[in-house]
Amino acid sequence: MGHFFINRWFHAFLLLILLSGVIFIRLQDYEWSRALRYLAFDTFNVMHPRQPTDQVVIVDIDEASLGREELGQWPWPRHIVARLVSSLKDMGARAIVFDMVFAESDRTSPAAFIKMLPQATVSDDLKNTVSGLKDHDEELAETFRQAGNVVTGFIWSANPEATRRKPVLSKPIALARDAADLKQTVNKIRGVTTTIPVLSEAAAGNGCFGVSTDVDGLIRQVPLLFSFDGDIYPSLALEALRVAQDPRLLVKVRGLKGDEVGPLDPPLRMQVGDYEIPLDHDGMFHAYFSKARPEKYIPVWQVIGGQADPEKIKGKIVIIGTSSEGLKDIRSTPLDLFIPSKSILWA
Question: Tell me: the pLDDT tens digits for 220-265?
């Protein structure tokens, strides 16, 4: 009987059963096994949070900024946004990234405002005066072109009817032959809400933002690539990284060769200038979170008013977003149950 238990065929049989069981459980994705994976991921993030980078700051449209009379009612006219961009560029921002969508033309532009008035009350002299004034969207677009490092955004939607126009693709994603199937495997989005072309075409980069949660409501993965209408688009974070280095750069994706692949390595590598990012075929990236840092937030009114410290801006990727209760998009991560979505990767 003892010989039976040390027989190599018996050992092979046991290993085969064990391996089959592991594969079966992995494929079935039982709730308890998924819960264990979530627990391991969350525990690691909580016990060993990522050391925060000092390369990113957030210019915050906070409650105090919305209450400033000199800035006016929200949404602010685009010429106010142009002042913000110019101020950030003058302070040495490496990239100026809008974590928002300019989906409509500015109704406060002089010509647009005149059209909203009862035409019987509008004199020819007033029409002639207004016709010589600059359109606010054109003014902001020209500021984007002069800055040369602005990144605009568009957001994905599950509703195809949300799409009015195809997003601007500032630079194509360069796929090596062994990564060409990404067009079929990355996150396919059904609809988009885009920034108006006059602005996104003037920007140095244009990226998609929006995240989805796991079944328990927490965010653990973020998409770096999206597929829409036959093209692959970068995420807003990816475009920020690219433009901050050089707006002329291309994002490149290649497959790993046999001698490069370790037992836990994803099959692809994404090259963004000096940075190399491991990538799965679905284009998803497992986030490694850092603790929230209130000190990296700068109120937007301080930037526009010239009261912000330029040293906090110089050489940094600047994300323009909001923490205002009425505007912010709240998400949850393993480290924070309530956090503005713009803070998830910008640390």
Answer: 888 999 999 999 999 999 999 999 999 999 999 999 887 776 666 7
**Statement to judge: residues 17 and 144 lie in one domain:** no
Q: How far apart, in whole angstroms, are the C-alpha atoms of residue 320 and residue 306?
A: 16
In a domain, 226, yes or no: yes
Q: Provide the whole-model pTM.
A: 0.81
Range of the domain at 153: 52-172+188-244+289-343
| SS3 category, 82 | helix
Residues 57 and 40 in one domain: no
> Residue 30's pLDDT is what?
60
Query: For the chain, what is the domain count?
Result: 2
338 has a pLDDT exceeding 50: no
The whole-angstrom separation of Cα 239 and Cα 226 is: 12
Q: How many other C-beta atoms lie within 10 A of the C-beta of residue 215?
A: 9
Alpha helix (H) ranges present in 67-133? 78-90, 110-116, 124-131
Q: Are 192 and 156 in contact (CB under 8 A)?
A: yes
Statement: residue 34 has pLDDT above 80: no
Exposed e or buried b per residue across 120-134, where buried means at least 16 C-beta atoms within 10 angstroms of its C-beta: eeeeeeeeeebeeee
